[in-house]
Amino acid sequence: MQIQAPKGMKDVTPKESYKWQYIEKLMRSACAEFGYRETRTPVLEHTELFARGVGDTTDIVQKEMYTFTDKGDRSVTLKPEGTAGAVRMFLENKLFADAQPTKMFYLYCPVFRYEKPQAGRLREHHQFGVEVFGAPRASADAEVISLAISILNELGIKSVKAKINSIGCPECRPKYNAALKEYLKANYDELCETCKTRYEKNPLRILDCKEKRCGEIAAAAPKVLDYLCPECQAHFEELKASLDALGIEYEVDPMIVRGLDYYTKTVFELVSTEGAYTGTVCGGGRYDGLIEQLGGPKMNAVGFGMGMERLLLVAESFNPIPEPNLVDVYIAPVGDEARNVGLKLAGELRKHGVKTEFDHVGRSFKAQFKYADKLKARFVAVIGEDEVKNGVIKLKNMADGTETALGIEGFAEKAAELVK
Questions:
Q1: Spatial distance between the Cα atoms of 22 and 352, rounded to a whole number of angstroms
Q2: Nearest CA to 255 among 276, 225, 300?
Q3: pLDDT of 58
């Protein structure tokens, strides 16, 4: 039986990797413009980090985490999201002692959730995320939304709608929870079993349930915006003013609560409204209590996450990602002496920054030209017995068929000039 990848986990083949590199390069460039620096955290963390940080009423912790006991009898988990690990890194390395804010992003972030695989969302998928620590003003919330939108726009995803909400803080949330529970009490028996559990621990999470009947019940529930304390209300008004200042259109959607327990105040989603995929392509918000909850100082934080697989799906529904030029010069030798000369020239061309391919199979001239054309090589250097004897190599332009004769001595330098 042929071994296959586990269900919900997918390879990125050499033929596809340029798409990832294209988006990653764009993301790095955008993050640099906004002043964010990269972080990388382990794929494996202690389970307690997610139980405390993500929240034990979330679907992630209750149903989806890949958790196991290691050989040291410790409970460890493949990370199901990026923020908790970034906060742990921030605390463990005492970055809170630096001048704030700390602005970071992560690109290589595989996350694991045991859920039903779907288009753009696999059991192992990859997140691009940004986190800002130590920035209390709502302008930071607006900045991360602006960064996300600029990346989506650069990818050609123009039809993006920003939806925002505020879910309050520990001061005003209890009043809202009480009102929500009072409303839900009459429909308690119709809630799904998961939401019945949430009813006591975190009723706000019921608003995020994907079960049809729970959604119908939640639609008429009291709105959290009506219960905000003066501080949360002022923060939300500043967010709207900041988005206005940045020229970002938005819609206030009181049903957005996000799927993680650590959120406070601002929550938002960016939704693609056209193309092959319509739905959320980015989500995030503020989590002012998480750093303190995980043992650090009292400090504000805000960020977002984007699923890379879903982003690729959406981006290519608007504009195919351009394939890069992989081969400038294909060296086509025939004969042992010609191969040695060609191998030497390949090394010299690469030192001049020329993308060079060399025949390692032993094909005929005809077969090598066919293969070079398949690789979309811009030029082919033919090296046979006559070329070695005469010290002259013909460099053929594959676009127009013209040939340029170059001496073997100084070939690499002259060829590089032609290529560039």
A1: 24
A2: 225
A3: 67
Asked if residues 133 and 102 have their Cβ atoms less than 8 Å apart, the reply is: yes
Assign 44 to helix, strand or coil. Answer: strand
Contact in structure between 18 and 323 (CB atoms under 8 Å): yes
Count CB atoms within 10 A of the CB of residue 188. 12
| pLDDT for res 276 | 67
What is the distance between the terminal CA atoms of the chain, rounded to a whole angstrom? 49
Q: What is the pLDDT of residue 199?
A: 86
CA–CA dist 23, 283 (Å, integer): 18
The two three-digit tokens of residue 215, written as one number:
């959604």
Closest CA to 321 of 20, 100, 8: 20
Answer yes or no: is pLDDT of 400 > 90: yes
* Burial of 393 per CB tally in 10 Å (0-12, 13-18, 19+): buried
| Cis, peptide link before residue 101, omega less than 30° from 0 | yes
Sign of CA dihedral 384, 388, 393, 394: negative
Q: Which tens digit of pLDDT belongs to each residue from 244-273?
A: 999 999 999 998 887 677 889 999 999 988
Q: Which domains does the chain have, with CATH numbers?
A: 17-172+228-318 (3.30.930.10), 329-419 (3.40.50.800)
Contact 386/365 with Cβ under 8 angstroms?
A: no
- Cα–Cα dist 8/275, whole Å: 24
In tens, the pLDDT along 322-381 reads 999 999 999 999 999 999 999 999 999 999 999 999 999 999 999 999 999 999 999 999
Q: Which two tokens stand for residue 99?
A: 């001048």
- What's the predicted TM-score (pTM) here? 0.89
Of the candidates 101, 83, 102, the residue with the CA atom closest to the CA atom of residue 264:
83
Q: What is the pLDDT of residue 325?
A: 92
Residue 16 clears pLDDT 90, i.e. is over it:
yes
